[in-house]
Amino acid sequence: MSLDFDRPSIARIFDALVGGRDHDEADHEALGRILARAPEALEMARELRHWLTRTVRYLADRAGVDQFLDLGSGFPTAENTHQVARRYNPEAQVVYVDSEPDARALLEENDFTHLSGSDLTDPAATLADPALARHLDFTRPIGLILCSIIHHIDDVEQARETVRGYVDAMAPGSYLVLAHQFDPADDSEVAASPEERFGGTGLDTLHRTREEIESFFEGLDYVEPGLTFPHLWWPDGPRFTPLSTANFTTLGGVAHIN
Length: 258
Hints:
Layout: H1 10-17, H2 25-37, H3 41-62, E1 67-71, H4 81-88, E2 93-97, H5 103-107, E3 113-116, H6 123-127, H7 130-135, E4 143-147, H8 156-167, E5 174-181, H9 188-198, H10 210-214, E6 221-222, E7 250-257
Parallel strand pairs: 1-2, 1-4, 2-3, 4-5
Antiparallel strand pairs: 5-7, 6-7
Helix pairs in contact: 1-2, 3-4
């Protein structure tokens, strides 16, 4: 499959933000316009990618999870789920679900990495995709990843139903990994600034309160330190760069599915 680099892609723009290599001039031009309006996008994207890497590492190394379902994975970029998981288990199976047409060419690089083009907002249809049944054993634990995707669903009830539709299909011993843009409510500037400045860029998302984000984990048991800012979830070591407002615009958590 050939990749279309003549038009900018939000997925490839994210790739550029986190230090990937699969982007081109059109993406760089679009990224420049975004950073002119919201320079914190760079820090936000990289913090979130580091968090995802740590959560997958925890599941593959500490929890012994050897199969992953990554929903809304976007374009393959630096430190993908399958790369991290297979570092700890070379036979880990990973299925990505995304509608990005260019992703297939770069993701299906080995027998343990697969891609489905299903609509992830329809859990029943996605879970019925033969690609999932071929590569994932739903009678065994799965690492279910919803990283920065649910905040694109405007209706909170639909968002809850979407998450619950996947969680209910997981075997006991599975884990939910979820990150979501955060509105702290008591400091509206933290959420309002990104929402206003990202508006119309393709990176715009819906910020929700802690209580709303917690509702996606209802009935599940958090892995410590629970639902928190990405930089506080199992940091790799001392911090070498100062924190900014951008560090407090996302909440992420990992929870055990009983």
